[in-house]
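Could you show me some protein's one-letter sequence and the numbers that encode its backbone in two labelled lines?

___
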Amino acid sequence: MSAIHPKTQPPRLLLIAPHSSYRIAPYLHAAQALGVEVLVASTSEHSLVSAVAEGLRIDLHRPEQALASLLDEARLRPFAGVIASDDSAVDLAARIAQQLDLPHNPPAAVRLTQRKDQARARLQEHGVPVPGFTRMDLQSDLAPQLAALHYPCVLKPLNLSGSRGVIRADNPQQAMAAAQRIAAIVAELDDAEAQRHILVEDYLPGIEVALEGTLHNGKLQVLALFDKPEPLQGPYFEESYYITPSRLAEGQQALIARRVSEACAAYGLVHGPVHAELRLHNGEASILEVAARTIGGQCAQLLKQGSGHSLEALVIAQAMGKPLASATDNSAAGVLMIPIPRAGILRRVEGLGAARRVPHILDVEISVREGYELIPLPEGAAYLGFIFARAKTPEQVESALREAHAKLTFVTAPLWRLQ
């Protein structure tokens, strides 16, 4: 991979990230390969990652203060591009890039993607297919609201990701229980609106897919379309298998890309990474989510399969105004985001060696350390780890992931809480 900078002085990239982000290290590696210098603006000065510890300390919960600090830094030495690693940083990244006249999404468009109710309303206004939806007021009488819902339905927080707090209900009794569980989850948020209201949408049976892409001057380039072979029917919607290339018919794939492009236009997104989730139902592709960020966790490792470059390299190059050309790779790849089987304390993981020896398995990464608490969905917000596979066909990838997962045993102990 060739560097994208002139030989005199490397351009500087601003990477805004929470200190615990999975994405920091891959971005740093990609930037080094491209010959780009990185300043990490993060929330911690005690990171084991030197680039974070030596970077700029900001408070993402105080955006005006953080914005002022970043502008001061830019005056000392300019940035050639700005990237946000995670949802919590995309708004600030858009604002600083706008101030510095660098490629960016309008901040209002980014904020729209982070509020599910407002995003649904915007798409509906523009004729982009979405599930039927309404808002529920948790501080008002729930009984008449529950009686007015269409069942089955899905209840979810307004601004959480990763399927956290997402619960299916088939009747008013289940919806009441779901609303009470979600109320406990959102009570910890620093957002009065998200504490009071939740989104309720019609449950759409059908195939769910994920699309990863980038926007350049408002035009969507699809980097990968992921099949999700597990039937995500609820009551909770834990992400698990992502496999690419998709096995859907070309017409279905084209429809998915068209709907994501329409959604981006409706929001006003024009630049940078896009991660979208959709459901195929009755011949239509309905938008569940479009986020102005990359895919979460370690799953970005799969993107090199489709483009010849890492996802981080593609995002960095585009942020610097010099997009990389895509290569062709005819192999298949996939990941299993290892679900948490039960609540408790993780004691040990058995079968790692056997899982790693399964043909086509690239690696098995366990993210949770022994002795840590495991919290399943819908309250939880993490996975046990990731299993990666690569093979000639998607069928071989899926088979390898399932075989490797079957060889793992997670030994847990009950969690005893003092009353």
